[in-house]
């Protein structure tokens, strides 16, 4: 099958909002395409929208989003600078894990967003986003370790929500984001 090429991030967002490729469209309130400047050099990829995101149509606006904002600051970043999206653009009922068919149906959107943004740095949040790039990889082994792929760096991180339900992970997440600060500064040509 030939892959669609997209003219713009807005075209992808419109296609996401109209999408009926998997059953999640039946239960969503709003699809959540992702947001951030088209000029963003840094991208964050989460798992799937939760309840707040489903209501507002925006990524990471609930409790995990507040944690994410704090973590971004530790890495020397602000939310307004980065493009934030998810692997799956519609909320799975009761926040269950996304199913393989849902992940597959949403893949062309994420692929298009990465192709258009061409970011120098991608933070993956949680094991599903990690496995988009590294199938079968374990987050417990790779978290916080930057991996270079051509001219792009991928930094796998635990999911910010993990710090909410496993408090022992909070300092690990903080240390990982703080440790990414020099890489962020180097890639963006800013002060660490
Ligand atoms: N968790 C995610 O993975 N994505 C969101 O947008 C919100 C919570």
Notes on the protein architecture:
This protein has a single domain (9-187), classed as Uracil-DNA glycosylase-like domain (Uracil-DNA Glycosylase, subunit E, 3-Layer(aba) Sandwich), CATH 3.40.470. Helix content is 43%, strand content 12%. It has helices spanning 9-18, 24-27, 51-56, 63-74, 100-117, 127-133, 139-142, 162-165, 170-179, 181-188; strands at 42-46, 83-86, 121-125, 147-149, 152-157. A five-stranded mixed β-sheet has the order 2-1-3-5-4, sandwiched between helices. The termini are far apart. The mean pLDDT is 96. It is α/β, with parallel strands linked by helices and 192 residues long. Bound molecules: uracil. The site of uracil has 11 residues, from loops.
Task: Provide a brief overview of the structure.
It contains 10 helices and 5 strands; from the N terminus they run H-H-E-H-H-E-H-E-H-H-E-E-H-H-H.
- Note the total helix count: 10
What fraction of residues sit in β-strands?
Answer: 5-15%
Strands in their spatial order, largest beta sheet: 2-1-3-5-4
| Fold-level CATH name | Uracil-DNA Glycosylase, subunit E
Largest sheet: 5 strands, mixed
User: What are the segments in which pLDDT stays under 50 over at least 5 consecutive residues?
Assistant: none
CA-based gyration radius: 16 Å
Just name the CATH architecture.
3-Layer(aba) Sandwich
Report the structural category. alpha/beta
Mean pLDDT, rounded to whole units? 96
């Amino acid at each position: 099958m030939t892959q669609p090429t997209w003219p713009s991030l807005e075209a992808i967002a419109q296609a996401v909002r109209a999408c009926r490729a998997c059953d999640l469209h039946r239960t969503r309130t709003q699809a959540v395409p992702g947001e951030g400047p088209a000029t963003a050099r840094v991208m964050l990829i989460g798992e799937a929208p939760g309840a707040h995101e489903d209501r507002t149509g925006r990524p990471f606006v609930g409790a995990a989003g507040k944690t994410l904002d704090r973590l971004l600051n530790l890495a020397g970043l602000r939310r307004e600078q980065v493009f934030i999206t998810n692997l799956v653009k519609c909320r799975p009922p009761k926040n269950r894990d996304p199913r393989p068919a849902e992940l597959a149906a949403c893949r062309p959107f994420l692929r298009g967003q990465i192709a258009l943004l061409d970011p120098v740095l991608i933070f993956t949040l949680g094991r599903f986003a990690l496995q988009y790039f590294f199938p079968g990889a374990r987050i417990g082994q790779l978290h916080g370790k930057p991996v270079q792929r051509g001219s792009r760096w991928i930094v796998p991180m635990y999911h910010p929500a993990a710090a909410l339900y496993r408090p022992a992970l909070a300092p690990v997440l903080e240390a990982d984001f703080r440790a990414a600060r020099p890489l962020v500064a180097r890639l963006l040509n800013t002060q660490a």
